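User: I'm putting together a small comparison set for a docking exercise, and I want a reference complex before I start. The sequence is below, and the ligand is iron/sulfur cluster. Could you produce the 3D structure with the ligand included, as structure tokens?
Assistant: Of course. I'll restate your input first, then give the structure tokens for the complex.
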Amino acid sequence: MKQEVTSKKVFIRTLGCQMNVRDSEVIGGLLARAGYEITDDEQQADIVIFNTCSVRQMAEDRVWSAVGNAVNREKHRDSPQKAGTVPIIGITGCMANNYREAIFEKAPAVDFVVGTADIGKLPEIIKEIQKHKGSLNEKKIYETDAEFREDEIYHTGFRLDKEHAFVVISEGCENFCSYCVVPYVRGKLRSRDPEDILKEIKADVDAGISKITLLGQNVNAYHWVDKNRDSPQKPGTVPVFTFDFVKLLTMVNRISGLKEFTFVTSHPKDTSIELFKAMAELDKLRKYMHLPVQSGSDRILKMMNRRYTRENYLNLAKSYREIVRGGELTTDIIVGFPGETEKDFQDTFDLVKEAEFNAGFIFKYSPRPHTEALKLPDDVSREEKERRHALILELQKKISKKLRKKI
Ligand code: SF4
């Protein structure tokens, strides 16, 4: 039921990945259901939420400066009746889990900090802040400790895009790649109940959406086990209901009215020939695979804790091309990881040549809090990172162009 609220315009600024895009939509849905109005005009908003990303330092720096701008905006606003007021400011997303209450010290204008698994509590938290804002009992609230989200938060029916929808199938990641902050800020891998995922997609399709992207930080590690539910596949055995990624894709493919779907992001160690076969067979599944390799050097891959070798990866890429005929293959690469020598870099360069990705996203390593790699000296100079970045980017551009021409 809608509740009445006084100051009700909410602006949500999304930074970072597609998971955050979906999370912002979920937050918008929860707040709209509680009577707030979601606006795309930050200047007019009573409440400004920064849904943040901690994957790269640059993304965090942008948030700190955006918070400063939100505080200062009153100086530039022409509406006299609102002059002097500063919006309620909140931080959600990975930075909330990364810095917790320390955010209040770094940015005293922030009123609330809400972690990735706590977003279901936002309507109550904002209501509480509003109740006391401007009084002697003004409050700052932080909630960052929940481990699980309630599935219910995905069912508000609030969608910003009327043709395409992101659907979260799993949250968190427990791979602990040594450069990555995600396991520390998003928690352990949790797969959602397949029934609930299918229910969400069917509701989207009923609302006119025809394209879906299934989301997970490690999407192809999706695995659901329910010991309380009978398994229709194995009558007479101990009733354990299991559901893996390929099975989920098969069920999604059967949804009538859905025209196309895809998934991101996959980890090579969880990528199988069965998955490629499913990709070749399922008619609605886009023939597109984003498979981050990160490095072409076995030594660096080991230091990154990626749990595959250069050879494993190239074999996977070869099988993908053979089985998923005409399929696109894209990747992520990090240059300048601690200790990366010229020889390691050359290995990556050669792998890019050999794998012939349709597109590649090349990043320069930057140390992240909590991670294992933080303990290593960040010893590749900025200039050298730039050089390696430019070389791979140039190579990838040529390959992408060549493949586009071929098509
Ligand atoms: S798979 Fe590795 S890089 Fe991807 S989210 Fe998990 S820890 Fe981070």
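The chain has 13 helices and 16 strands. Residues 161-286 form a domain with the Transcription Regulator spoIIAA fold (CATH 3.30.750.210).
User: Thanks, that's exactly what I needed.
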